[in-house]
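Deliverable D2.4 — example input (structure tokens):
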């Protein structure tokens, strides 16, 4: 304890504060020099401690994960773009199928109502099936009227060549 009182009596307060600052600055500089040489020697010999290696592994893993996430984002954007293109194509195909079915029904109506003036069961079934698809897809009522006219046509039996005029498919003629 005597040394401390001797120091306080020999030096003024400003000199003591300056001495403490100089000692702290010297310790800090010494610590930086030691850390610098430690890092240089460690890098020269390729020495890593466990913590540094773990940090490096984690950093590499995070970089890989970031790359994978970016790749997935890019693929997701491409997938959404492709899905939009597919949806547009499907819509276009549905419209064209709807138009094709409508044209078929109109052509068949004209053929059977104006040209033949009768219809057989197989063609009527084919038209009914296409009409059902047409209506399910949102077809309009114009084709409804055409189908009513086709349903009211006399039935033809192609095997016997007999025209059924009672519209119920039963032949009343005697052979």
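Example output (designed residues):
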């Amino acid at each position: 304890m005597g040394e401390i009182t001797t120091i306080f009596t020999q030096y003024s307060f400003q000199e003591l504060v300056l001495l403490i600052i100089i000692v702290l600055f010297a310790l800090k500089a010494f610590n930086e020099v030691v850390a610098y040489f430690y890092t240089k020697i460690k890098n020269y010999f390729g020495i890593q401690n466990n913590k540094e290696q773990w940090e490096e592994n984690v950093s590499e893993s995070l970089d890989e994960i970031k790359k994978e996430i970016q790749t997935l984002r890019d693929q997701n954007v491409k997938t959404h773009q492709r899905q939009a293109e597919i949806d547009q194509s499907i819509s276009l195909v549905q419209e064209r199928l709807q138009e094709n079915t409508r044209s078929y029904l109109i052509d068949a109506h004209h053929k059977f109502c104006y040209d033949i003036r009768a219809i057989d069961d197989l063609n009527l079934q084919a038209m009914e099936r296409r009409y059902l698809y047409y209506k399910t897809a949102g077809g309009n009522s114009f084709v409804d009227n055409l189908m009513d006219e086709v349903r009211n046509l006399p039935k033809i039996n192609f095997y016997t060549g007999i025209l059924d005029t009672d519209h119920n498919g039963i032949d009343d003629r005697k052979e």
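The mean pLDDT is 85.
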